[in-house]
Amino acid sequence: MTEIASIGVDWGTSSFRLWLLARDGAVLAERRSGQGMQGLAPDAFEPALAGHLAALRTDGLAVPKAPRIVICGMAGARQGWREAPYMDLPTALNDLPSGAIEVENGLGADIRILPGIARRNPDRPDVMRGEETQILGLAGTSQKDLSATIILPGTHSKWSTVEKGRVTDFSTAMTGELFALLREHSLLRHSLGAVAIACDPLNPAFRRGLTQSTEKPANLLQAVFSLRARSLLFGAGNADIAAELSGLLIGAEIAGALRTRPERLILAANAQTGPLYAAALHFTGMNFDTVDVEKLACAGLHSAARLIWPTPREI
Amino acid sequence: MTEIASIGVDWGTSSFRLWLLARDGAVLAERRSGQGMQGLAPDAFEPALAGHLAALRTDGLAVPKAPRIVICGMAGARQGWREAPYMDLPTALNDLPSGAIEVENGLGADIRILPGIARRNPDRPDVMRGEETQILGLAGTSQKDLSATIILPGTHSKWSTVEKGRVTDFSTAMTGELFALLREHSLLRHSLGAVAIACDPLNPAFRRGLTQSTEKPANLLQAVFSLRARSLLFGAGNADIAAELSGLLIGAEIAGALRTRPERLILAANAQTGPLYAAALHFTGMNFDTVDVEKLACAGLHSAARLIWPTPREI
């Protein structure tokens, strides 16, 4: 059996993902749960993690007695397990592990929580926590060389500028959260019904939303209300309204984030957001590469583990 | 005792207001309740109204046996009491009562529900229902002559262009609703706490929000997230975050609505929104008149009643 070299944990607001990693980064086992930060008091993180390790051992996996565990995400927030202070821009991806904090614990483990990154500009402050590890994963072994603008769509979409392995700037748009708020709680809930979040990028309504918010970016508050009128006056159905709202919000995100045309753009999305963002970027005439975001956190945790623990454990 | 010539009702989504009106428009009595459309099935409107009339009679008021009742607002929506179809742009304010529907009822009353106004442009459809009556009230006896852009701030802020007594265009911004959604349900709730909706227009954070959204109107989704970072990185308090969010959203509304500089601008606001919108309009260099919005619905219902029933009731 391949030896477990480290354990990576992506501990987010509403989710927990754990990977047992071999020395070469191969995933030997994975666990997922809904035990996110928002449901855990600070003293509930260690028992939660202990439960997962015990379950893995019960499953017959050779989890070391003194495992090396590297964690990214909201577990390091002020209201998380233990705060891992933000590193400031610009941040070399290779330096992220130097900002990790060690967490004393009763599990016999060497536990490190990776820092987030802060943009401390008082005109537009910004923070990320978790995405920096995905970007480290994207950079992989070539992180010294990566230069690109990286889009990580989501509840809080991140656009990060990476120059030769250093994160030099980033911005966050509240795109996914705003879509969910409008769908669940606003007047538009009557026009959106129980529609799935996923929208069809081929729907002409999606394109209409993109057109509106890229041509008239100042009109977002009016355009969003107009969707209600469209369903009242023109009988537009739930799927069309959802697609137009997606187009409006993704178009607004792009209009706000794309102040200059980056030389290289990488879209790191999942199967749900990927097609929408790809269609939107095509619409704006941007060229871009795509990568599957699902593997990036695990890859980034592996890279971090190799940087924190450069030599194998003594057996 | 002055005779009750008509009864005006402003029946909104979440509120009910009723006025007993003299022939000259003087208010003889008023009732308010939270019996809005959203809490009433279609067959619950008549009993609700009957209850108010009975209460007025119990109070000793001489409500006629066959009262003339004119209603505006969401009672005329599809999901209201009975649908009063929208009139199309352009709409002469004087013609609004011609679009009212009569409601058969068991109260012995002559009940009319005023129509809303629709903007049926497929590029940006829009609707109003209730505000047209406030504008009629603003125009008052001079409605043939009123020419102005009228701002009615609120949950759904309306900007209406009136030319010589005709509503020729309007737009709606989801400003107030979005503020409430972000305060109650978004990530920002952690930074806004239980802060009152009312914000201080003299707070420099309000001005910072205005600057941001008028100078960079495409950046709204990023600017809103940035507020969370401001509280995390700079320890900004609830009041400052609320003021900056108000500035961002009101600034975005103005940037989106003010495509041309109107010759005359009238701000029809209440004590809560008035100071914020006045400060925001000053900030953008606009001149404007202000009127108290609280009296407009009642005044408009009176004007409508005079147009519907030009002669006094026979006694």
Automatic annotation (TrEMBL), chains A, B:
A GO BP entry: D-galactonate catabolic process
GO terms of molecular function: 2-dehydro-3-deoxygalactonokinase activity
Coiled coil regions in record: none
InterPro entries per the UniProt record, alphabetical: ATPase_NBD (IPR043129), DGOK (IPR007729), DGOK_C (IPR042257), DGOK_N (IPR042258)
Keyword DNA damage assigned: no
Key words of the record: Kinase, Transferase
Pfam family, one: DGOK
Lineage: superkingdom: Bacteria
Protein name: 2-dehydro-3-deoxygalactonokinase
